[in-house]
Amino acid sequence: MRRILLSAAVLVAIVPASRGREPFFPPSPPLRGRGEQERPVLEVGFGETDITPAVGKEPVYLAGFGQNRKATKVHDPLFARAVVLREGKRKIALASVDLVGFFRTNVVKVRKRLPGFDYVLVSSTHNHEGPDTLGLWGPSPFVSGIDEGYLKTVEQQIVKAIEQADAKAVPATARLGSARAPDLLHDGREPYIKHDELVAVHFRQTKGEKPVGIVVQWNCHPETLGGKNTEISADFAGVTVKYLQDKHRCPVVYLTGTVGGLMTSLHVPVKNKDGKLLSEETWEKTERYGILIGEVAERALKSARPVRLTPLRAHTREVFVPLDNKLYLLGRQLGVLKRDAYLWKGDASKAEAAPAAETKKPLCMKTEIGWLSLGELDVAAIPGEIYPELVLDKVQDPPDPGADFPTAPIEPAIYKQLRGPHRMLIGLANDEIGYIIPKRQWDEKKPFCYGRKRAQYGEANSVGPEAAPLLCNAFRDLVGKAK
Ligand SMILES: [Zn+2]
């Protein structure tokens, strides 16, 4: 998200050597029989539906940068993609949409239509070249850019993609690999800490090794086309998906992870095959960047090793987070930001619903965190754009003298809570509450950090300085209690 408002996923099934090529990986030995207690087999399926809005009669407001950016045509389609994991009667669905964000209110509607699932996660890639689904990018700061009819369609299409994946689920084995790509990330805010690990998981049919699909998770704002572009696109994420689909002839789910603090493809120097530097905010750079991320995924797949993903367990917790952002509060009053609010009484575990007209009392909003324990893989589900410092335990210490809350305790880091040999983070998971900033790096008041004349960008699109401590503590408790 850029200054806006009011100023503001290999689940790779390697193609067997049908065309005389050796399969990449030796077939993984059957997991059962390693003295492990008999477990129901893991079954996996993929689904995909098109969620491209129609450009024509009604204006389509593009999200992510300024207001009133109307789509002129479709460059490439937007999708809802899903993977379903099953173990006996237990079912978990992970869906990803090529959108800037998807509020929890909409996710709850999707879940209601999938009663047979133990857990349904809907994450947005945080695409900055797709329609406004949060309300912040309408014709003016006072008018929402959301097309309610379109949102309904998206909900339906997500349900369909998950049902498709469920219907296609087959017994499968899994392999997981990761690769680092620091050169393919630009961090737009001090302190410069990158979450530059890409994780890829591949599934193959237990019998016959036939492809089942790919999940890839990377940490970057899909905004390579920039804020002047008016053609609907999935940005680089669409290119990465297509690259892996073509290469492995199987479905692909792309998941956005840690994008706060500010992980972006903007200002990343990208050269074409001939070594020519490609211009910023062009399709050439976007396409090339997407292919380069595809190649990083290939590297991860090459190093992939068998991973046990059962037992499947999902743990979630609702968290009430104070709504301190004055622009968001104004947006709510103006009906631009359509979100239920609650009366904040200092308790993140419970709060009373606030009357719609409430403007005086402190308010908060309800969101959720999740921890998926998938056998040897731990997944953190975070409802917004978390800063890498909070994931990787790299919050600045001591804080910069300009920090607004220099004595704030350092938040318990997300990955530090996880015990499994493998881990992954899904951002914008089941909600989009904006930036989640370490409290001691919060910097809104003079003197500004790092001797700067102006505050760095970030706080304008965060609900407030309490979000990070409340969410990180709740995550620690959630994992701690469930163990
Ligand atoms: Zn963002």
Specify the number of helices: 7
Terminus-to-terminus distance: 35 Å
What is the radius of gyration? 22 Å
Major sheet characteristics: 9 strands, mixed
Quick one: how many beta strands? Answer: 21
> Approximately how much helix is present in the residues?
10-25%
Describe it.
By secondary structure, the chain is α+β, with helices and mostly antiparallel strands. It has seven helices and 21 strands. The chain has helices at 104-112, 148-168, 235-248, 283-302, 326-333, 388-392, 467-482, and strands at 42-50, 73-74, 79-87, 90-97, 119-124, 170-180, 186-187, 197-205, 211-218, 231-232, 252-256, 263-264, 305-306, 312-322, 342-343, 352-353, 363-374, 377-381, 385-386, 422-426, 435-436. The strands form five sheets. Strands 1, 3, 4, 5, 6, 8, 9, 11 and 13 form a nine-stranded mixed beta sheet that branches. Strands 14, 15, 16, 17, 18 and 20 form a six-stranded mixed beta sheet that branches. The radius of gyration is 22 Å and the shape is globular. Mean pLDDT is 92; it is low at 1-36. Zinc ion is lined by residues 1, 126, 221, 259, 385. Zinc ion binds at residues 1, 126, 221, 259, 385.
